[in-house]
Amino acid sequence: MVLSPLRTLSIVLGTLILVGGLAAPASARPGQVGTPYVTASTPHSLTVNWPPAPGARRYKVTYASSPSKAHRSSAHVKVSKKRRTTVRLTGLRKAKRYCVTVRAVTRHGTGPRSPAHCSFTMRRSLRPQGSTVSVATFNVCAAAPNCRPWRGRERAIVRRILDADADVVAVQESTRRSAELARLLAPYGYARYSDDPGRDDETLYYRTAKLQMSTVPVTRSTCEHDPYVGDDDTSVWEAPRHFDDATGQWYLQRDGAWFTEVDLCRPRTKNVASRGRFGSPTGATAAWASLRVVATGKTYLFVSAHLTHSATPKAVRLRRTETRQLIAKATRVARGRAVVFMGDFNSYRGLNDTPRREMARQGWFDAYDRSATYTRPFLSSLNGWDTRARTLGIWGGHIDRIFIRGTVGSTAWKVVARTKNRRYAGTKASDHNPVRATLHLP
């Protein structure tokens, strides 16, 4: 049978349409969205962001009380407005964990779920009151075996500290470099506290325009030979020894002057800086300082701590013990003042997070779980010198932490890093990223 040219063209076009229609969904299937993350929290809402997916027309955000439930079809769903890569989940319960996943919707269908990310709604609305103090913690890796040469990094470390824009900076592994950092930070208004130059593994730097070192009166007995200050004419005294009836003291002549024969002891009171360090038989160390907020006159205790490093069961148990010791020692010297713990706790939220559990048992909480806003929470605080911006699932993987009381408000929680296209930009300052937050202290 001979087909007309018009019918032949119709058959060819129909075949192309059929083939193209069948092939397109397979070749343009929506890809998986990157891990979402929470950027804001209230007692009854969470704001969620995620990386854009190619070809997405909208996104489906599912949320539930656990990562596994967030992957179920029965989970709550909220659809984004067109291509927007953010939604606000409302009607949530306060102080509860919520886990979210995201799927891209293209003209070819709905893609697979993203990895889950979890966060908490706040226990109460953030009410700025008391003293507002921004804090940061930063392990600068100055002397450990895995640290890179200090020269060439010190300026990058200072830049990261300045990027954090914090009033108090807790530094770990500043071994033999704290004085140099103090010199480099001084032009920017920071002063240093470390126990002494030979024991400066942990250090605290603070803005002198915002805070001052608190002092405490210390009374000690001092004993010394007092010079004679009476009205008697000592020129007629017979050397080397004379008894003065007026004072009831024996005096001895020394270098042409008369002094009491025995030491006279008196209590003397002197104001000394309220600061110090904690040690541990297991190797954990910490520096602490009592700082007074200039604007309010209120005083708080800030701690820079570094716990045992290792993922072994023994190290997990040691970190629990070290956390208990840290809390006990800090509360003893705080004498009722609010305490802020900062540092490298070598443990992140997940399995075997003994520091967080012990802190929570005694009334301190990770500011990451209590903050009103977040910046780059998807970045791990440990970068391991990797040029790629690492992120760990579910919680983000932050071993550098800030622990606060439940009465302390937190906002502007941030991983401080310079990145471009999920890669680190510029000179790597350390194998850690600074973590900072703004605290509202009672």
UniProtKB/TrEMBL annotation:
In terms of superkingdom, the source organism counts as Bacteria
GO molecular function annotation: hydrolase activity, acting on glycosyl bonds; metal ion binding; nuclease activity
Name any Gene Ontology BP term: DNA repair
Q: Which UniProt keywords apply?
A: Carbohydrate metabolism, DNA damage, DNA repair, Glycosidase, Hydrolase, Magnesium, Metal-binding, Nuclease, Polysaccharide degradation
CDD domains found in the cross-reference section: FN3
InterPro entries documented for this protein? Endo/exonu/phosph_ase_sf, Endo/exonuclease/phosphatase, FN3_dom, FN3_sf, Ig-like_fold, TDP2-like
Query: What cofactor does its activity depend on?
Result: Mg(2+); Mn(2+)
Pfam families membership: Exo_endo_phos, fn3
Name the UniProt record assigns to this protein: Uncharacterized protein
> What taxonomic lineage is listed for the species of origin?
Bacteria, Bacillati, Actinomycetota, Actinomycetes, Propionibacteriales
